[in-house]
Amino acid sequence: MARADTPSRLRRLELLAVQLKQDGHCTVKDLAQQHGVSPRTIARDLALMRDHQGMQIDADRGRGGGLRLDRNWGVGRLNLTYGDAVDLLISIAVAQQMNSPMFLANLDSVRRQLVASFSAEKRKKVDQLKSRILVGMTASTYVQASAHAPPKRVVQALHQAFIGQELLEIAYQREDGETSKRRIEPHYLLLKYPVWYVVAVDHLRGVPRTFRCDRIMSATRTDQSFRLQKPEAFGPDLAKGELSV
Fold it and tell me: Which residues form the HTH deoR-type domain (predicted)?
C-alpha cells in the first residue's frame, strides 16, 4: 500500500480524533477500512496521537470492545479544507439571505473569519460561487408535499459539477413519472425552501431549463467544462430569485 503524504496523514489524524470522540466502539480494522489504509498504518497513527499529541485513547478489551478518545478530551481547533470552508461560507450566505431571525447573531463574524482565511484569488472564486446561488420564495405546499431528499450520490455529483463548471449527465423524472436522459450545464442553483432547483442549459433541447434536484434520479460527471453564462441568458427573473418553476 502506498505511503501517504504528510498533508494526507495530518488530515487523517484530525478525522481520527473526531471519530474517536464521537463513536463509542471504533476498531482498528474499521478505521483502516474507512480511511483506505492498512491496520498497521492506523496503529502508527494512534501511537503518534498518544505519544506526541498527548491524547488519552482508551481501548476496551473483549468482545464488542473498541477504541475511544477520553470524553474529557477536546478535539482542539477546527481545521477545514478549502472545500469545507467554501461549503460553510455559502451555507452562511444562504441562511442570511433567508433572513431567519434565529441563530444569526454571530454568522457575520464567522463569515468574516472564513473569508479572511482565503487568498485574494480564492475569495474572488468564492464570491462568484455565491453569486450563482439564489434564494427565492418558499415553495408552494403542493410542491413541498411531493418533495424529498435527493440521493446522496446525486447531490455529490451535482455539487462537484456546479463548482467545477462541468457538464453533467442526468436521468430526470418529470412530474408525470416519465424519465429521460439529459446532458446539462449547471449554471445556477435556486432554493425555494425547502426545495432546490438547478438552472441549466439542457443540451437535449439546446435551451435553458430548470430541474428540481429531488427529481434527478442519477448524475454522472463528464469532465467536460462549460463557460458560465450571465443571469440575463436565463430571463430577467433569475437575478431576483423569482424564476417560475
Answer: 9-87
Sign of CA dihedral 133, 137, 140, 144: positive
pLDDT value, residue 195: 93
DSSP states along 92-136: HHHHHHTT-STT-TTHHHHHHHHHHTS-HHHHHHHHHHHHTEEE-
User: Which of 153, 178, 149 has its CA nearest to residue 168?
Assistant: 153
> pTM value?
0.65
* Beta-bridge partners for 170: 182, 219
Domains (range + CATH), the chain: 6-69 (1.10.10.10), 82-131 (no CATH), 141-240 (no CATH)
The CA–CA distances, whole Å, from 210 to 18, 199, 207, 224 equal: 39, 5, 10, 20
| pLDDT more than 90, % of the chain | 33
How confident is the model over 136-180, as pLDDT tens digits?
A: 888 999 999 999 999 999 999 999 999 999 999 999 999 899 999
pLDDT score recorded for residue 243 = 45
- Long-range contacts (CB closer than 8 Å, 24 or more residues apart) made by 54-57: 55/17, 57/20
